[in-house]
Design brief:
Shape: elongated
Radius of gyration: 21 Å
Order of helices and strands: HHHHH
Number of helices: 5
Strand content: under 5%
Number of domains: 2
Structural class: mainly alpha
Length: 91
């Protein structure tokens, strides 16, 4: 959404904030979300967020890829069974 708001405000400098908000509200976004994106644009903050600190994921890329392949190629499987048996935690 931010990229689209930034591009819309950048391309057509004559658009008012309310016009941008009405356009995105018709697409199903909330007014406050659109106004937050407009405010970020006016202040000059970057479009993308910076990486956040926090606990790393317990899934590594190999386990995630294996689970995705099994989900795509299997009919009638149990998510719980696959997450418990196939993708083990790293110790």
């Amino acid at each position: 959404l931010r990229k689209r708001v930034f591009s819309m405000l950048g391309q057509k400098g004559n658009l008012k904030n309310i016009d941008v908000v009405k356009y995105f509200v018709l697409e199903g976004f909330k007014k406050s979300t659109v106004y937050d994106a407009i405010k970020r644009c006016k202040i000059g903050l970057p479009v993308e967020d910076h990486p956040r600190s926090g606990r790393p994921t317990s899934f590594n890329k190999t386990d995630l890829k294996r689970l995705q392949n099994e989900v795509e190629n299997c009919v009638g499987f149990s998510y719980i069974k696959h997450t418990k048996l196939k993708c083990k935690k790293k110790n």
